[in-house]
Amino acid sequence: MTRRRRAGRRTAGLWRTAAAAVLGFTRRDAAPPPRTPWRDRSASSYEAPLAADDQLQLGRAAQLPPFGRGNGIDALFWVPLARLDGDRVDAAFAALAAADIAAWAAPVRGRRDGVQDLFVAAMGFETAEDLLRPVLRRED
Question: Positions of the region Disordered (predicted)?
Fold first, then answer.
C-alpha cells in the first residue's frame, strides 16, 4: 500500500511539473529590473549625462517663450540677451551660428510691431554679447 501511495505522489508531482512547464508557471521569482546607473551628485549639470527619455527634463519648452524660432543649435540653459527689431534677427542668428552659439528669438508679447526677444545659450552669453555689438552697429 505504501508503494502505491509513493507512486501516486510521484505521478502527481510529475503531472504538476509538466502542467507548470507547459503553462509557464514556475516557482522562480521574476528577475529584478536592471539597475540604471546613478548620476554622480557631485557633478554639475553641465557634466552630468542626460537621458534622452527622461520625463522630468522639460527642456526648451519650459525655458523659452512659444512661437519663436532658433538658429538650429540647441542648449541646456537659456538667458535673454536683447530685444531686437524683426529685420535684425537674421543677422544676429547668422553671427551666433558662425560662433556655434545657440540662439532663439520670439515675438514680444502684446506688441505687433515685429520686435523680438533674443535668447542665447547661457554658456555663450559673454561671447554672444561681444559678437552682436559690431553686427548691430553695422546695421544702424
Answer: 26-46
